[in-house]
Amino acid sequence: MENYAPILVLMAVVIVIVGLIYRLPALLGGRASARERPGYLSGAVPREHAMSRFHVRWYLVGLLFLAFDMEMVFMYPWAVVFADIGWMAMVEMGMFLLILLLGVLYAWREGAFRWT
Amino acid sequence: MDPLWVTLIKAFVLCLVLLGAFAYMTLIERRILGRMQHRHGPNRTGPFGLLQPIADAIKSVFKEDIIVTNADKVVYVMAPMISIIFALSAFGAIPGGPAGSLFGFNPWVVDLDIGVLYVLAVTSVGVYGIFLGGWASNSKYALLGSLRSSAQIISYELGLGLSVLSVIMIAGTLNLREIVEVGVWTVSPWLWPPLAVAFVAFVISAIAEVNRTPFDLPEAEQEIVAGYLTEYSGIKWALYQMSEYVNMMTAAAFISTLFLGGYRGPYVLERLIPGSSEWPIIWLVLKMAIFMFLFIWLRATLPRFRYDQLMRFGWLYLFEVALAATLLTGAVIAFVL
User: What is the residue-averaged pLDDT of chain B?
Assistant: First the structure.
């Protein structure tokens, strides 16, 4: 655990420096409150909140990512000890990957990668 | 393990160096891009335009700060800080030289057993800055930019993570310093083909991860104004720029450390001048400079991907190629070595 302490120190230093930079305009006599204006819409005035609707496919990509990122988490410890275990590790990970690869093929057939 | 004050000083110096390097990278990038497009680039502010970054800094500090009506103010203000804080923190795990080579100190801030995971994890948290910034801005273009950036990151994270695996399998460790000391290319010539494939896949996904051309869709100015940056001005905008360049530098250093021997000098020079490959910092900086130049060169050369092409490339080619490289490495280690 002690090895990880410098990360906290580094982050603390970073936060202090970034905070200073962030306050710089105010310290050097900028306006106290920021000006408000409507969001940019190529000249038109936005009539509704920007977060009204967006395409469902972003959700699909998010789900796919979740599946494969979990797979990758399992592959890191596997990669570290791979050389010691040898071909058995290869076979076992191959079976695991095959199941996931079938998942990709299924998602592909269902059109998860078709964007237009 | 260093005493606290040494870590404090190292962290402070690292931040200042990265921010200084950011300032001059903007100038170098604009000059190189200018030359590549048969023009001069900024050369009026000081000799060779050397004072341009300072002028830019003064300008962005004094520019008017704008907040969009109905924006989510807390998130809107926090987002650039998230971005830059994680960008700066990621660099600390990258070793700059052998132990004790920098005036008796270790040329890294933190030496982690899980250095690879740390850098990957912290750089991907930085994406939250981009995503939340566009999300909170209450602007169509910013929202589109942030959605694009998160979808792009999660598509290319897979290629990135998988292509690292070959290196980890060969080195048998996640510690960046030990990976450099193993020297993945020196293990066996049989490993060169999968390593070369993994290297190319890693560079491509690293460029996508830092949102550089041809993967700069989150801020594609011809399509969505400036993407997630649209509603940001002044110091907030500057912080986003900072995090982009610091991320580029982290990516360059990470590529060099994993695939190109990191802080170690070239073998030929070591034969001529014994001990030269042990010099701290300089080799890492040189290797980083090569990749920074590559990033700029690509920006001047390649057009931008279309969005569906980008997603298809990430999921159907890069992912599979990286996976093949991993399995090939595994086969070589299991059956040949």
Answer: 84
Nearest by CB: B89 against A11, A35, A79? A11
Q: Is residue A88 part of a domain?
A: yes
Rounded CA separation B95/B105 (Å): 12
The H or E element that residue A36 is part of is strand A35-37
Give the pLDDT band (50/70/90) at residue A30: low
Sequence-separated (6 or more) residues with CB below 8 Å from residue A53: none
Contacts of A63 (CB under 8 A, 6+ apart): none
Confidence of residue B1 (pLDDT cuts 50, 70, 90): low
CA distance B15 to chain A (A): 7
Residue B185 sits at the chain A interface (C-beta within 8 Å): no
Q: What is the ipTM of this complex?
A: 0.79
Q: For residue range B103-125, what is the model confidence (pLDDT) as tens digits? A: 777 777 788 888 888 888 888 88
Query: Which domain covers residue A73, as residue numbers?
Result: 5-110
Interface of B with A in 243-302 (CB under 8 A): none
Interface test with A, best of B14, B106, B137, B169 (most A CBs within 10 A): B169
What is the tally of structural domains in chain A?
Answer: 1
CB atoms within 10 A of CB A26: 13
Higher pLDDT residue, B48 or A113?
B48
B61 vs A10, A11, A28: nearest CB: A28
Which of A6, A12, A50 shows the shortest C-beta gap to B138? A50
CATH number at residue A18: 1.20.58.1610
Q: How far apart are the first and last CA of chain A?
A: 49
Chain A residues whose beta carbon lies within 8 Å of the beta carbon of residue B173: 80
Percent of all residues in chain B with a pLDDT value above 90, rounded to a whole number: 3
User: Does residue A116 fall inside a structural domain?
Assistant: no
Domain membership of residue A115 (yes or no) is no
CA distance B272 to chain A (A): 35
